[in-house]
Amino acid sequence: MTLRNYPDLTRGEGRWLNLWAAFDLTAEYLGTFTLDQLHEMASREGKWISAVQYRRAGQRIDEAALATRFNGLCKGDSPFDFTGFRISPVRNESDDPECTCFEVCEPGEQAFWSVYGFHAEAREWLLVHDCEAGEEGEILARLVELTGHLVEYRDAGKAYANTRLADLPEIIGQRILDEVPDQDDPAARADDADAHPLTDLRERILEAIQRRA
Questions:
Q1: What is the reported pTM?
Q2: What is the distance of C-alpha 176 from the center of its chain?
Q3: pLDDT for 68-127, tens place per residue?
Q4: What distances in angstroms separate CA 32 from CA 24, 55, 60, 128, 201, one per listed residue?
Q5: How far apart are CA 40 and CA 199, in angstroms?
């Protein structure tokens, strides 16, 4: 039986969560848990980090990801009907106060962020979810958990295609650095990077990734 320490545990792949059987220092069985459950318990009791060892105990479906209601899906569609996902800033381009027409725009101009999926049968990008403020990273992470697909970022001027979710914050971060003034520029300010319109999205994605580390 191969035992692991807390820092060596992994969350799982795709829609499946790893299960970890826990044993104390006397080899007494303490139960079987997902990494998310262990993170929560470790935040309350340090013993789950320092005085418990673990071994693999199979997998289970990620019920939280399955339970997510994606508000843009057409009737009859599910996340499994898509071959990839992208996130884009969108705003209403309609001049008619009685109707809306949301189109992809530049970051900073958006009313909100939308997640689209490339539909395997329709062969086009279709809306999957219009995000509420703060849930952008979590929605992307749950779609990746369910399907294992790659993701994209696209706005009105630039796109970053076919990347792992784990790599997207670095790509966005590099763009932020490229677009803010150099520190030796007289116009530079200490909060230029924090004020960049992509910084909040990058942080939301990082938070979702870190919750699953």
A1: 0.72
A2: 19
A3: 889 999 988 989 899 999 999 999 999 888 889 999 999 999 999 999 999 999 999 999
A4: 12, 9, 11, 34, 34
A5: 27
